[in-house]
């Protein structure tokens, strides 16, 4: 099943140093917040300088199938409805309109 293998692959990449420090911070953050987070919420949680650096790292993690866009939610930082990012280990949970999980 994907969730277990995704988590194992992530921990292996982290242990071997094949994942960058910022990638690791993002993955740790998403692992601790399984309901998903917006890019700005991630930026604030890991104390990144700007959201542009987070956006690039998330794109790279999406290409590696380590994170995915689970739907939309209202961002606690901006108050706007934006994409919610989740760790691929949470692939069976999707956020639908208003933050409800299904």
Q: What are the main properties of this structure?
A:
single chain, 102 residues, alpha+beta, Arc Repressor Mutant, subunit A, two-stranded antiparallel sheet, 4 helices, 4 strands, disordered C terminus
Under the CATH scheme, the architecture is Orthogonal Bundle
Structural class: alpha+beta
Outline type: globular
Strand content: 15-25%
Quantity of strands, as a count = 4
Using only CA atoms, what is the Rg? 13 Å
Strand order of the largest sheet: 1-2
Q: Can you walk me through this structure?
A:
Strand 3 (95-96) and strand 4 (100-101) form a beta hairpin. Residues 93-102 have low confidence and may be disordered. The longest helix has 15 residues, at 2-16. By secondary structure, this protein is an alpha+beta fold. It has helices at residues 2-16, 21-32, 39-45, 51-63, and strands at residues 67-74, 81-87, 95-96, 100-101. Strands 1-2 form a two-stranded antiparallel ribbon. Helix 3 packs across helix 4. It has a single domain (2-101), classed as Orthogonal Bundle (Arc Repressor Mutant, subunit A).
